[in-house]
Write a structure and sequence with these properties.
364 residues, alpha+beta, Heat Shock Protein 90, 2 domains, 5-stranded mixed β-sheet, 62% helix, rod-shaped
């Protein structure tokens, strides 16, 4: 967990005060300073402890190597508890490498020499304490790096989700309207009695086809193939409006609904709207001129949408993005709602999109 600036200052002040208090208690109140390698007066011991605490607080994060060397030198004069804290700081904040290890050992080494532990028959206690603090520092470093990686992953995931939503909006709403415009231009080119008008209509249709292809490349680049993608966040027109627009553009579409209308705020309604729009756009792109039937059955426990084209009078394949993004996105959206989407050619040569979603929490 990262400390806020005020929390970090408070922690440093508490650490420095603890180091000074522990040293004063040992060397002044108990008089242990006379047992060290270089006996010093109580006043000098207090001054060294204060200096060690200042060095520790100021440099242990920014300059851990310099801090370790300075505390090692001060601890030869008066063994400061700051020297035993330094291995933690070197392991936690220092750069990886042999130089940091050597510098980190300088502080406890100064403690061992200054405290004259060999003469007291205890040559290993300081080393063990330093090893314990170094281990704690390594653990804290690993934990901080793991949290940082996790934060980066969260940011990358959020950005990927944003790109996926943009791709969903582009592929859904924009493709729907562009294919309608392309279809209208094709109808105008076929019916126009004037050659100039026919030429302009063909030009509009050609530009629309090119725009669809570039849009497909953009959608493929933006889309995230990972599971869990949902429907578009931009509210699309209702499926009945989508059908009306397709019919107005000249597409042969019939629709039929059984049951009550879905609540516009229901996620299932959003899925139905997206699925109808996608199926009709695919029919225009891949089976131009085919008759399309849309059937929606809304029951108490489930919703089923069936969109089927007969593939007849297709007259060749229409313009398509070729990305395959729309149906894949809708499959994931249906699965997220506990349902499923199936899309496959029919035996008669057409194509069928079948969406089944439960209205309860149970999967269909």
């Amino acid at each position: 967990m990262r400390l806020l600036p005020l929390e970090r200052i408070a922690a440093d002040v508490l650490l420095g005060a603890t180091v000074v208090a522990a040293g004063v208690w040992r060397d002044v109140l108990r008089g242990a300073g006379t047992d060290f390698l270089l006996p010093v007066s109580p006043e000098a011991a207090v001054a060294v402890h204060v200096a060690s605490a200042v060095v520790l607080v100021v440099l242990r994060r920014r300059r851990p190597r310099v801090c370790a060397l300075a505390l090692g030198g001060l601890s030869v004069v008066v063994p400061s508890y700051a020297a035993l804290v330094m291995p933690y700081s070197a392991a936690r904040y220092g750069r990886r490498g042999a130089a940091t290890v050597v510098c980190g050992l300088a502080a406890p080494a100064g403690w061992v020499v200054g405290a004259d532990l060999w003469a007291g028959g205890d040559p290993v206690s300081g080393v063990l304490l330093a090893a314990a603090t170094a281990t704690a520092g390594l653990y804290a470093r690993g934990r901080a790096e793991a949290l940082e990686c996790l934060e980066e992953q969260v940011v990358r995931t959020a950005r990927t989700e944003d790109r996926r939503r943009v791709a969903a909006d582009l592929h859904g709403a924009v493709t729907h309207h562009v294919t309608l415009a392309v279809m209208r231009a094709g109808v105008l080119a076929a019916r126009a009695p004037d050659d100039a008008v026919r030429t302009e209509a063909e030009g509009v249709r050609a530009h629309g086809v090119h725009a669809l292809r570039e849009l497909g490349d953009m959608v493929a680049a933006l889309s995230d193939p990972a599971p869990g993608a949902g429907v578009s966040t931009t509210r699309p027109p209702s499926w009945t409006r989508v059908v009306e627009e397709a019919v107005a553009a000249g597409q042969d579409v019939t629709s039929h609904q059984v049951g009550d209308a879905l609540d516009p705020g229901d996620p299932v309604a959003g899925l139905v709207d997206d699925a109808v729009r996608e199926a009709l756009a695919n029919a225009r792109k891949h089976a131009a001129g085919a008759a399309v039937a849309v059937h929606l059955a809304v029951r108490a426990a489930s919703v089923r949408l069936l969109v089927r084209d007969d593939g007849a009078a297709a007259g060749g394949r229409g313009p398509g993005t070729g990305a395959g993004t729309g149906l894949d996105r809708l499959r994931r959206a249906a699965a997220a709602l506990g349902g499923r989407l199936e899309a496959a050619p029919t035996p008669e040569g057409g194509f069928e999109v079948d969406v089944r979603v439960p209205r309860t929490g149970e999967a269909s």
